[in-house]
Amino acid sequence: MSLRFYDTRARTVRDFTPLHEGRVSLYLCGATVQAPPHIGHIRSGVNFDILRRWLTYRGYEVTFCRNVTDIDDKIIRVAKAEDIQWWQVSERNQRAFTWAYDTLGCLPPTVEPRATGHVPEMIELMRRLIDRGHAYPAADGSGDVYFDVRSFPDYGSLSNQRIDQMRAAADSEGERDKRDPRDFALWKGARPGEPSWRTPWGPGRPGWHLECSAMATKYLGDTFDIHGGGLDLVFPHHENELAQSRAAGDGFARYWLHNGLLTMGGEKMSKSLGNSLLIPQMVRKVRPVELRYYLGQAHYRSIIDYSDEALAEAAAAYQRIEGFLTRVAEVTGGIQPAATVPDEFALALDDDLGVSQALAVVHGHVREGNSALAEGAKERAAGIAARLRTMLDVLGLDPLSEQWAGAEDTGLREVVDALVTVALEQRQAARARKDYAAADEIRDRLGAAGILVEDTPHGPRWELKRG
Ligand SMILES: [Zn+2]
To answer: Which residues are in the Cysteinyl-tRNA synthetase class Ia DALR domain (predicted)?
Structure first.
């Protein structure tokens, strides 16, 4: 069976064949850096990180472009409110996003272009659109440039809407000489006190949609494979990107993939709800890898309705995987990843990135591996663990990988391990002389210090209590 994805534009699952053999170009609408990210923002990053890792596993060389929108109305408002420069707001929040992506194990994109660094490309795209009769500068000289939606018969094809039923474009304040209320701003003419860049039609700043078209085609070519983003971007953002680029004569994206949103109590994340779910707060509740597991476990197109309980369940599920691998590593002295993943795992991911089915395969392996350990079948357990590492690597969740194994202070862990070993030897000695009260006291005092002792067929082992 071949790799296939649900394509929003085709409204069906389609077999995936890249434009160029062996290579995949992927564009993801990244952060609008007006505030630090909450988990709703980073879910998209995790979903597309898994897609990218799976494409790489499948042998494709992936060029992954994720942009940064570093100028918009809200960034300007925040800067005014704090009496700082707009770029201070963007810089600060871009760093928060980068930190969040890194913390959750999202591999850095191949390129991460910023909108304001691509004004010449945007001017060129506007010129092509104006020349072809698809865009016009506002006749009032405001510097606004609009896309003429009626000039493009396919307008609405991505979001499956008829133009007559569409709402007016809300992206330009104050309706400055538009021909049709649905015409959207490619460029916003300068207003007093706002940052602006010069164009042949007057000074102003980029419209959001234009940025993405200009950056996607600059780095990935006129036609590229996959365009991704959150479901809330389908209209107007992606509809407008598609219209601009096609009207200008580019092929643009061949497949459109959208991740489902993250809600809370059934509602879309708002700023007030989102504040409690900022990434630094979340990684105090659970470890980053557990948060990644939580955000990545559901199918990318499904809605995640956030709850602390579901987060705790996800963390516990991850700890079962981790516990098994740690035990095998202790028994065997180390686990090398297997060369390939099991077929059923591959089938699950090939089928529109079925991560939940793939995780079912992972947990089946953990159960089987634990039975093998209980029976003392070390070799069988080691084989299962090797396959597990390879599967988990594709999901960015391998507990023994550099990313996650190095997440704790290993130097300190060695010291603790030596101290706990001394205590455990004394406990063994107490048991040997049948002084069970002393043996239990040692275990209880370790427990009070946050160290969980477990007796296994291979002797006692310890781990730090979580949560
Ligand atoms: Zn975009």
So the answer is: 344-405
Query: Going by C-beta distance under 8 Å and a sequence separation of 6 or more, which residues neighbour residue 141?
Result: 202
**Pair 239, 364 in one domain:** no
Span from the CA of 237 to the centroid of ligand 1 (angstroms): 6
Distance 295 CA to ligand 1 centre (A): 21
Q: Is residue 249 part of a domain?
A: yes
212 is in an annotated binding site: yes
Query: What is the pLDDT averaged over residues 130-152?
Result: 95
CATH of the domain at 331: 1.20.120.640
Tell me how far the alpha carbon of residue 177 lies from the centroid of ligand 1, in angstroms. Answer: 25
Nearest alpha carbon to residue 68 among 43, 39, 96 = 96
Q: How far is the CA of 120 from the centre of ligand 1 (A)?
A: 18
**pLDDT over 60 at 99, yes or no:** yes
How many whole angstroms from 143 Cα to the centroid of ligand 1? Answer: 22
The β-bridge partners of 263 are 268, 305
20 labeled part of a ligand binding site: no
Give domain status of residue 454, yes or no.
yes
174 and 146 within one domain:
yes
Query: Is 448 a domain residue?
Result: yes
Percentage above 70 pLDDT, the chain: 96
Is residue 237 annotated as involved in ligand binding?
A: yes
pLDDT of residue 452: 86
Q: Ligand 1 centroid vs 169 CA: distance in angstroms?
A: 16
Cβ 182 vs Cβ 149: under 8 Å: yes
State the distance from the centre of ligand 1 to the C-alpha of 234, rounded, in angstroms: 10
Chosen domain end from 405, 420, 454: 405
Distance separating alpha carbons of residues 452 and 433, to the nearest angstrom: 23
Residues 67 and 95 in one domain: yes
**pLDDT-derived band of residue 216, with 50, 70 and 90 as boundaries?**
very high
Q: Does the annotation place 29 within a ligand binding site?
A: yes
CA of 136 to the centre of ligand 1 (A): 22
Q: How far is CA 39 from CA 28, 97, 166, 255, 407, in A?
A: 17, 11, 30, 25, 20
Q: For residue 67, give its domain range.
A: 4-259
The confidence band for 276, taking pLDDT boundaries of 50, 70 and 90, is confident
The answer to whether the pTM exceeds 0.85 is yes
Least confident of 103-107, 350-354, 436-440: 436-440
Q: Does residue 275 have a pLDDT over 80?
A: no
> Are residues 399 and 417 located together in one domain of the fold?
no
User: In the chain, how many domains are there?
Assistant: 3
Q: Is 65 annotated as ligand-binding?
A: no
In angstroms, what is the span from residue 445 Cα to ligand 1's centroid? 55
My answer on whether 388 and 448 are in the same domain is no
Q: Assign 1 a pLDDT band (cuts: 50, 70, 90).
A: low
User: Hey, what amino acid is at 370?
Assistant: N
- How large is the average pLDDT for residues 49-59? 98
- Count the Cβ atoms, other than its own, within 10 Å of residue 271: 8
